[in-house]
Amino acid sequence: MAWLLSLNCSLPVDPPSSLQQSQPRKLIDTSLSSKYHPPPPPPTPPPRSSSSYGNGSLNNNLKPIVLYGDPPTFVSAPARRIVAVGDLHGDLYKARSALEIAGVLSSDGQDSWIGGETVLVQLGDILDRGEDEIAILSLLRSLDFQAKANGGAVFQVNGNHETMNVEGDFRYVDSGAFDECSDFLEHLEEYQYKWEEAFVSWIDASERRKEERKMSRSYWGPWNLVKRQKGVIARSVLLRPGGPLASELARHAVVLKINDWVFCHGGLLPHHVSYGIERMNREVSEWMRGLTDTDSHSGLPFIATRGYDSVVWNRLYSRDVSDLYEYQIDQIESILEETLEAVGGRAMVVGHTPQPMGANCKFNCSIWRIDVGMSSGVLDSRPEVLEIRDNEARVIRSKRGRFTELQVSDYT
Asked: Calcineurin-like phosphoesterase domain: which residues (predicted)?
């Protein structure tokens, strides 16, 4: 993309000589809204590909949602409410709770979309540390079909645990998740390998399979090693590059820009923008679909998926700044502002790093950190979601069965 700027960023090891004479930092804005207003974005280049979601039946006056890129990279969603959900890590119960809080999932157990024309974004790390990974992916896919019919949409971005599993790194896989892979492979066979039908129906079938699995534990007791090997093989078949589940993940980006908001798992940096967001998304997708040379490092897009400063691993914007020097905090804020200006964004929303104090924003609310570690395999915390309306953001969580809006000042 010709309009993307070539930028470089680094944090100096030693403080600058002018540290003692540095200017005081400006105060952090603690209002509900994100106040950072970057310069107008450069013109969007002609899309490599695009598609539209219909208006649905709720509001015929709304313009359709338009997607640019494959997988979607830039999304125009005029006048839509946006809700963002952080890391889920295989916890279906917490996932459903978060989606109910977001106002997009029915609470009657029918898994119905009630979000109307809302746009839902999930920020990755659905895999690992929990046993219902494929069920969550299936639920989101089902909701996407329903949302499209109502003028809304469901998007996901891949996180580091998605890329790790496609690489064959199963270190953080829950034992129940290996079982789910075995069960799902059998389910897929029952559907004669018709992927769409089998995948969308799994959210309903998975509960029945889990019950059957519990009843058969006495049978499997002496054969746990064999059972585990079966699960590892099933997971490898599903998630290897070109495998059916890896190809499903390949439908999703690692960086997504919806209107003026940037969504990614770890964090976007200037050199990522210079490399090309659409290019990164395309290369990760091709790798997951098995279309690149997996026998060489060139098959895996390093800038997006590996290294501490890659898009899915970067924690620069999510770390606790209380242990940093003033000049380091200024450097981080400068890098963030430079990135947002380059991509033409108002603010960035990230997951990846659990926030024990809850979802929060920093740097004049130009970065929102929404991984609250809700999965029982992480912090087992109360679900929280981010809502964006008219370019203003707020955090919503459940409290004693009711929904509560949180003041940004509670967390900054």
From this structure: 81-354
